[in-house]
Amino acid sequence: MENKLGRNLPDKLMNELHFKPFETTKIGNPVFQRTAPKVQVQNGHDKLKDDLKQVVKKNVKDGMTISFHHHLRNGDYIFNLVMKAIMDLGIKDLTLAPSSLTGVMNDMVIKAIKNGTVTNITTSGMRGSLGDEVSHGILKNPVIFRSHGGRARAIENGDIKIDVAFLGVPNSDRCGNANGMEGPAAFGSLGYALMDAAYANKVVLLTDNVVDYPNTPASIRQTQVDDVVKVDQVGDPNKIGSGATRFTKDPKDLTIARAVNQVIVNSQYFKDGFSFQTGSGGAALAVTRYLRQAMLDNHLHASFGLGGITKPMVDLLEEGLVDKLMDVQDFDKAAADSMKNNKNQQEIDASWYADPDNKGSMVAQLDIAVLSALEIDTDFNVNVLTGSDGVIRGAVGGHQDAATAKMTIICAPLVRGRIPTVVDHINTAVTPGQSIDVLVTEFGIAINPNRPDLIKQFQDVPSLHVYTIEELAKKAESIVGKEEPLQYTDKTVGLVEYRDGTIIDSIRQVKD
Amino acid sequence: MENKLGRNLPDKLMNELHFKPFETTKIGNPVFQRTAPKVQVQNGHDKLKDDLKQVVKKNVKDGMTISFHHHLRNGDYIFNLVMKAIMDLGIKDLTLAPSSLTGVMNDMVIKAIKNGTVTNITTSGMRGSLGDEVSHGILKNPVIFRSHGGRARAIENGDIKIDVAFLGVPNSDRCGNANGMEGPAAFGSLGYALMDAAYANKVVLLTDNVVDYPNTPASIRQTQVDDVVKVDQVGDPNKIGSGATRFTKDPKDLTIARAVNQVIVNSQYFKDGFSFQTGSGGAALAVTRYLRQAMLDNHLHASFGLGGITKPMVDLLEEGLVDKLMDVQDFDKAAADSMKNNKNQQEIDASWYADPDNKGSMVAQLDIAVLSALEIDTDFNVNVLTGSDGVIRGAVGGHQDAATAKMTIICAPLVRGRIPTVVDHINTAVTPGQSIDVLVTEFGIAINPNRPDLIKQFQDVPSLHVYTIEELAKKAESIVGKEEPLQYTDKTVGLVEYRDGTIIDSIRQVKD
């Protein structure tokens, strides 16, 4: 079958897994019966354990769904510790349902797939060796890729039923009251993990820092926690700000960031009390710095900044240029420290951030989102998941979610080396063009034809070079030539959900 | 049928309502599938309303269960406003499920019962004219009395299914982010209301103070809220500290409070890091002041104070004599103000406070609870619900919940005027004697025979006059004579749940 974007979906799998094809970015007003955990009652006196393997043995059985958070990114020490214990116990056929998978987890996941420990995965993304192996078909069943808001929705509506959540925390008391702000492994917001804590049947905290009872503030509460396991080290928060969240010095990125800033300041949305999310990715992060100067020059301030929080956003908060930071995740240690010290940096869970199926998330209130792309097609559909070789090397993240902003700007270089970004046909559709408003490249910008208001606002701005997206695609082709279509096998290695749970695209096994 | 306390329960009603008789205070480790709300999705853009009647009309239908909180106690203006709108619309056959009912609501509830608007009630308690009318049989179905922890349990496990919660808040933004701390009607902790916000299908906030978006900290979150209604005035927080929470000057109360303090300081639990709940009621509140001096004299401090928070407890926090106040409710304006200003005064919801069926509540960690009583029998069973005339004039409150503390002290005058407190047979059993350890009266103390350790600790303390509880009952009888047994009709006007949902007693209609 084909969905509304014309993406080919595997009929058999779609039927077997009861998925519906993507139709629209509009969510409407459906009614959902929420799900809830199955709770084993205890008085809380005997939660503190030091033998991880015993805790795993007690809680995890063959065929279960287990989860982790990725707040510590490549500084995470918990995932590998728990997965090793699971493999040592010979537990098989697990579904892995972390908020995302980071590079530091790759070797372990590959091993767990190959020995049958893990047979299903749902994640925001994967990179490096794991993406490569999965793209070459090592996992029997397709990975289900979900946005951060989509995962929150799936957990709240019961599409993901987590049996056991293993959550690394930088502090906890003996009963499981924990937050992300204090301790050697402090990483700030527990935003993604809060979903697991609220909805998993069993919640196991792992911490290197057992503090006096009662521990406050308690982002995760004792009422949610079954076991607290003392470990040597939860992680290294200095490694959070690596990979996708590193600050750019690339002059091309900075050119793009300046153009994004021009788009923002010349739009109808740049007015006192506006709101924004600038996300991760080189140029996207740099935008925040330019935005600061524009706000100072124009004597206006923002009501809130949203999303993964970065040092430049914290600077805006401290200068009074933004009233509140709504923080689902901290992209660097400075942002994590700030959450502890600044009461206007509010921790939010992934549902509050972006679940499309609640009574109104933050992204639904967002004016401006600045997002990145691996590829964008001439219908403005965006790929942030697979590379030009068809191999999985990215994450849905909050991309689909933040793209519901009143003005969504994709910033990306026209070409990366010999690889075009703006193309006629993207390898994988992740975010529908319907929700993308402006593409900014180092060469010029393109405005979605469904936004005549923005075309009018930007077409005569001297600093903005406005093209059609077809012109930008041609320009890219003129630089790097036409790409050869990729060769795939018939096997589906991934299904990409839109945030509402419909399938926006499938990913097939690459042919070598 | 009779339950384990020998209380007579109405077979027909018990069977019809699927209730089980009380057996034990032990909760064990049962497994419960939690319930969850049915959510109508919206983007949050159109929540703010100014026509309460329209909002009521949209949300409330005949036969539904509606709820309110009682944090503003006799200063509440919301309950009557909403109930009037409901009656104006001619809606009938509602179940009223507030966290409790206060005097200011009495006239309205009586009217709503008499005209068929309300046909079922579950509450923590009722007093004054409402208690009198209900005790005389105006409500067709029995009131289900639940403790604060029991209500949290019933909501989490689905015994109470709230269709629409009407929650008065001293501030909210246009999307429903709200807390109890700022604004003219600020009352501090939203502890009881947080259950309704999390579990009701529809959540309607009423506020006199619409603040900028996004409002933080958000005790109630936009993801939970359907409508935000602007009203003229939510309530008068100066009226919170009236009735059951007024500070005593009664010399008898102060004598009792001093004796309670002696019990505490001479017990094994009075050591560095101990925890306590002192509750409401004249003598109970005064205990906190004596405890302060004892802590100073003995150079020790408490890890936490729990429950309804009072000014004397805030003083201990500010002096560093207690590390944390765990705050489900503020009993006076000073306590409410303190929650805003002191990060060590932690707002907790009713589940965290006292739900017996979660993974460990605060009361399960409590060392010492000081509670009051209307009557106590020679098996230490306590009545806090009906007067000596059999009329409902009290509330279960947190009584059953806090009584699970390691040492539970009941403080009460031996007699009140011509009415004995210590009796052979109490009118209504609310808290089982199994969980009561010490009775303190102005005449002397009695220790539960199931606590030989405490008998040993207290019997030789010069300041403590230790009696058997039978001796205290005789003493009371010698002062006021023997009470005539009350006359009741066959009609059951109330069923009292133990915190685990079993029925600990029934209340019958009084005969005039």
UniProtKB/TrEMBL annotation, chains A, B:
InterPro entries: Citrate_lyase_asu (IPR006472), NagB/RpiA_transferase-like (IPR037171). It comes from the Bacteria. GO terms for cellular component: ATP-independent citrate lyase complex; cytoplasm. It catalyses: citrate + acetyl-CoA = (3S)-citryl-CoA + acetate; citrate = oxaloacetate + acetate. One of its GO terms (biological process) is acetyl-CoA metabolic process. Keywords: Cytoplasm, Lyase, Transferase. Its EC number is 2.8.3.10, 4.1.3.6. The keyword Cytoplasm applies. GO terms for molecular function: citrate (pro-3S)-lyase activity; citrate CoA-transferase activity. NCBIfam families: citF. This is Citrate lyase alpha chain. It comes from Fructilactobacillus fructivorans. The gene is citF.
